[in-house]
Amino acid sequence: MGASKTHCTTRYCRIRISLAKANFLLPVMALLACGTAMAQLPIYNVGRTPTEAELRTWDNVVGPDGKELPPGSGTAKEGATLYAAKCVACHGKDGEGVFPYRALVGGRGTLNTPAANLTVGSYTPYATTIWDFINRAMPQYAERTLSPDDVYALTAWILAKNGIIKETDVMDKNTLVQVQMPNRHGFYPDPPQAAPDKNRSWLPYWNQAKPAAKSAAK
Amino acid sequence: MNSKLSDRRGFLKRGAALAGLAVGSIPFVNGKALASVTPGLIKGEVDTKLGVTPDEPTIQDLLYGGRSSYEKTVAIDSIGRLGALGLRNLTPLQDSIGVITPASFHYLVSRDLKLPNIDPREHTLMIHGMVDRPLTFTMEEIKRLPSVSRVYFLECTGNSGLAHYKSLLGDMKRGRKDVTVIQGVHGRTSTSEWTGVPLSLLLKGVGVQKGASWLIAEGSDIGRHAKSIPLTKAMDDVIVAYGQNGEAIRREQGYPLRLLVPGFQGVCNVKFVRSIKLVDKPYYLRPEISAYTNLHPDGMATWYESQVGPKSLITFPSDAHKLPGRGFYEISGIAWCGRGKISRVEVSTDNGWTWKDANLQQPIFSKAWTRFRLPWNWDGTETVIMSRCTNEYGDIQPTMLELAKLWGDDRTPPIPASEIEQWWETSSISEFLNNPIQPWRVKPDGSIQDALYNTLLPNPYFPG
Questions:
Q1: Are B96 and B227 contained in the same domain?
Q2: Per-residue pLDDT tens over the stretch A70-123
Q3: Chain A residues lying within 8 Å of B340, measured CB to CB
Q4: N or C: which end of chain A has fewer CB within 10 A?
């Protein structure tokens, strides 16, 4: 075994050295990473800092704070023309949906009835979700062919058709996140972070969340 | 006609091949076939050569071998009208053997109608957001990192749900003959050995910042599927996978790279994964706020319920089979759970009056199918057979009525058979994460019928 120790590969030795010096090297690595393309995965030394182009293309999933929203704007009036051209085949003339495609409009006040109609207007809690989904996945067969202005306009059309905003309201990076969706408080709070197996049960999240949620929603 | 369309046609041919009939693989909307609007959904001819080694193969034919021409099992095309919403293929559970699903039979549920074919030399994974060192990795780099191979199940969260029962009934009414409950209703689950890099290794390397609690994974498929996943789960057992059952992941499973989120509903397992962003809250994306939520009778809804409950199914005999006569049969099935290992499967061959412990195939993997087997002598009389499983934490698979109670439904049996569909439709049972006991009725002529509704009637194994 002694022989194999002396024959240990250079790579293995390098890993051991870098581990031993990790604390000492950390400030140096942080300096290198800052504003340069030198960052890599520690220990394994693979990977590189993302390019600007990569971040533009792939950091575009929009969250509820709207931080990822691009510049641009649109109104429901502008959206109406686009909707008639690109959306009507599946979602219907007034957003009522053509089975099996979903309705976008209507359903307010039905959620606690047996005929609950789950639409963007009655169910969706955040307006950013509409923008995000249209932007990345619509229209089917011509995904990502809409400009940011188009997406703001179509989002505005859906919101106005549901009576959530006015036809003349301008939707942009700032106004969209301020839209109060009717069902904003219609969901129980987010579950706690997924615990390790032994501390987690399967259905009871719902049972546990229910009482707390009711008081929170009021 | 491009190759993608030909592939799609191949799916249809397989669907038709199962029954030996060229009927009904086409979804309908308002009575009108969708073939004209949905690319690839074309009535296909039966292709009996699918995946088959030629009778006198050359060495070239064997370089990526096929199967015997006597084997006809296929992953059928989607059932019902839901097929119009994307690519769907269902695992032939009735012919499943052991615990590994061949990649060819793996279920496929995708919102997209087209499958990307990604050049792995151009595919990268970017990890960014609330991290100290945002990094982009090539596939080559990911494959250099320490890897793990683990056996895990995947299951579409809508599997076994009411929508699929209704789709199946609708298809049957329209004359489709190649569909069964075991495959059409329950076939959205499969198990594979997945190989890849633990996501925790990458996250530790990029330095997750304080305050980050969720990650947003996005794929580069046509519809750019994205999903919020809790950071604790990501640090626990999530894999960035490139291998499936000893070869590269298939295109329909996310080639060249996908997330594998063990035990969580299928929608979390982002295929073609290209971007992982660390954030401080879930992003309330479309799959999190419309589908995949549960609306309760009071009008409030729950969301981010991801974990699959304890579930088992007898796969033989099931409604795809007909027993040739009385005598010995080995009852065989699968059990799985999103939380730990299956520790016990009980089987009843007398409508729930008595239960016997089945043999469990070893080794038992956590969050994977466990094969169970029980010897059985059928005396030729009508009976109902079923299985129920327990996991290592003592979670027990519920009956349909117990499931309804768990979801807050306080109506009690008996419910007349004629009202069962309505009962289910108006019950609080979720459309998602369905795991009720599945009984099969064995008829005196050896045919098998779905008897799920049995569990709504007074039964010895249902107290009260």
A1: yes
A2: 999 999 999 999 999 999 999 999 999 988 788 999 999 999 887 889 999 999
A3: 197-198
A4: N
Q: CA neighbours within 13 Å on the CB side: how many for B202?
A: 35
Question: Of 3.40.190.80, 3.30.70.270, 3.30.70.100, 1.10.760.10, which CATH number belongs to A73-176?
Answer: 1.10.760.10
For residue B424, what is the domain's CATH number? 2.60.40.650
Euclidean distance between CA atoms B165 and B28, whole angstroms: 16
pLDDT digits (tens, 9 = 90+) for B292-342: 888 887 888 888 878 888 999 999 999 999 999 999 999 999 999 998 999
Q: How many angstroms separate the CA of residue A106 from the nearest CA in chain B?
A: 14
Domain that holds residue B420: 311-456
How far apart (Å, rounded) are the C-alpha atoms in residues A180 and A123? 12
Query: B316 and B286 in one domain?
Result: no
d(CA B241, CA A15): 25
Contacts of A216 in chain B (CB under 8 A): none
Task: Give the HSE-up count for residue B444: Cα atoms under 13 Å, Cβ half-sphere.
Answer: 1
Interface probe, candidates B144, B201, B289, chain A, greatest A C-beta count within 10 A: B289
- B45 domain-assigned: no
Q: pLDDT tens across B147-177, in order? A: 999 999 999 999 998 888 888 877 877 877 7
Chain B interface test: which of A25, A61, A146, A176 (most B C-beta within 10 Å): A61
Q: Which residues of B touch A132 (CB under 8 A)?
A: 283, 285-286
Please, which contacts does B210-215 make with residues 24 or more away whose CB atoms are closer than 8 Å?
Answer: B211/B130, B211/B280, B212/B129, B212/B130, B212/B131, B212/B278, B212/B279, B212/B280, B213/A193, B213/B279, B213/B280, B213/B281, B214/B278, B214/B279, B214/B280, B214/B281, B214/B282, B214/B283, B215/B129, B215/B276, B215/B277, B215/B278, B215/B279
Say if B46 falls within a structural domain. no
Let me know if residue B69 belongs to a domain: no
How many domains does chain B fold into? 2
B142: domain CATH number is: 3.90.420.10
